[in-house]
Design a protein that fits this description.
It is a single chain. This protein is an alpha/beta fold. The chain folds into three domains: about 5-75, no CATH class; about 110-285, Rossmann fold, CATH 3.40.50; about 315-398, Winged helix-like DNA-binding domain superfamily/Winged helix DNA-binding domain (Arc Repressor Mutant, subunit A, Orthogonal Bundle), CATH 1.10.10. Helix content is about 40%, strand content about 15%. It contains 16 helices and twelve strands. A nine-stranded mixed sheet has the order 1-2-6-5-4-3-7-8-9, sandwiched between helices. The protein has a three-stranded antiparallel sheet with strand order 10-12-11. Strand 8, helix 12 and strand 9 (about 275-280) form a beta-alpha-beta unit. The radius of gyration is 22 Å and the shape is flat. The two termini are about 35 Å apart. Mean pLDDT is about 85; it is low at about 300-335.
């Protein structure tokens, strides 16, 4: 979180999606030098107009405090453009985010093959099945799946990656704490176990329409290649393609041929104009990279997402969630399993959880462990299917 308060101050004054953030890192050793240089230094930098300089002067550094407090409370990571963890592929574009807000575990995207899968929110069954299959099979071969968390193709792509126990990154056009698409809340949560939900906007930022075209440049920058499935002539997916080609003229663009339905003219035009390479199988994408990346299939011991469907509870019975686990009656006494071969820390946290939701701050109070040590243990316990999270970031026994 190098100089996080200063970078947040900068975004609150100037905004997002601006080349000025990168330019500042090229002029100054630290954003602190720029901040303390004051108005005279801001003018001398030559990066800002009079209106922007006025905004810098009127924005107090304390504007960062509430955002940092919120991230600390929810254990969100903040990665600034000055951090060593900041993705090089993001820094290479003209207008990289000054700050990335991260829920989960940001993979080393510069060392992994990644494919962005984008398409319409109003996808056909064919398109959604294709997105799922491509994502699942690519993820099985170690490819990180990048998408935007929206309905349709995005959702199918994330779920496909999760079905393979793969890594996926969800790039939001709002804050990561904003309740965007409530029906996808569980998917976003599950993504954070091995991947990340990220945004350049502070946690509670609403999903304004202009955020989504801005978000698309991040999807394209994080992706070695972009697969388009069912996009219309004016689809935001085409903006992602445009961003990708502007960022790197050699970035590989793939497209799955759609029906002659006018709703999917954008995808077919990409193929017709030879902007995109026609693909019919995930192997077409792997083969396009000439074995630069390892492509042997990785094994998976995960609980499958193949049956990711809404289940309507039968009257008189507890509902079954998407994993096929029947919810426990909250009046039952908690039953902890024995002989689990857990570490002391894992055991302490496991026995702090019962069949009524218990929250991270409560676990911390019971175990006397700091929150940053509790979170990874909770992930391990979930993967072992000993606990599960429930709405509101609570945890219960399975």
């Amino acid at each position: 979180m190098k100089n996080i308060e200063y970078w947040i101050w900068f975004t609150q004054a100037i905004g997002y999606c601006t080349p000025a953030a990168k330019q500042l890192t090229q002029i100054y050793d630290s954003i602190k030098d720029f901040y303390y240089g004051g108005e005279s230094e801001w003018i001398l930098s030559g990066l800002f107009n009079n209106n922007e300089i006025e905004k810098l002067g009127k924005t107090p550094l304390s504007v960062s405090d509430e955002i940092i407090r919120k991230c600390s409370h929810y254990c969100y990571e903040m990665i600034t453009i000055e951090d060593s963890l900041y993705p090089k592929c993001l820094y290479s574009i003209d207008d990289p985010p000054a700050v990335l807000y991260v829920s989960g575990f940001m993979p080393d995207i510069d060392e992994r093959m990644s494919v962005g899968i984008v398409g319409t929110r109003r996808a056909s069954v064919y398109g959604m099945n294709a997105a799922y299959d491509f994502a699942k099979n690519l993820a099985k071969h170690g490819v990180t799946i990048i998408s935007g968390g929206a309905r349709g193709i995005d959702t199918s792509s994330h779920v496909g990656a999760l079905a393979a126990d793969g890594v996926t990154i969800c790039v939001l056009g709002c804050g990561i704490n904003y309740d965007y698409l409530r029906e996808n809340e569980r998917i976003r949560r599950d993504i954070t176990f091995k991947g990340a939900v990220i945004s350049e906007y502070p946690p509670d930022t609403e999903p304004f329409p202009f955020h989504f075209p801005q978000r698309n440049r991040i999807i394209s920058a994080l992706s070695d290649g972009i697969l388009v499935i069912e996009a219309g002539k004016k689809s935001g997916s085409l903006i992602t393609v445009e961003c990708g080609l502007e960022q790197d003229i050699n970035k590989k663009i793939f497209a799955l041929a759609g029906s002659i339905d006018s709703r999917f003219d954008g995808t077919n035009k990409l193929i017709k104009d030879r902007i995109a390479e026609l693909v019919t199988d995930y192997k077409d994408i792997l083969d396009a990279y000439d074995n630069i990346y390892a492509t042997s299939e990785i094994s998976s011991d995960s609980v499958p997402y193949d049956d990711y469907v809404e289940v309507v509870p039968v009257k008189g019975k507890a509902p079954i969630d998407v994993y096929g686990i029947r919810s426990k009656d909250i009046t039952e006494a908690p039953v902890h399993k024995e002989n689990l071969n857990l570490t002391k820390e894992q055991s302490d946290i496991y026995y702090a959880i019962g069949n009524k939701p218990v929250y991270i701050d409560e676990i911390s109070e019971i175990t006397k462990l700091p929150v940053n040590e509790i979170l990874p243990v909770l992930t391990v316990l979930e993967l072992k299917k000993l606990i599960k999270s429930v709405q509101g970031r609570g945890y219960v026994l399975v």
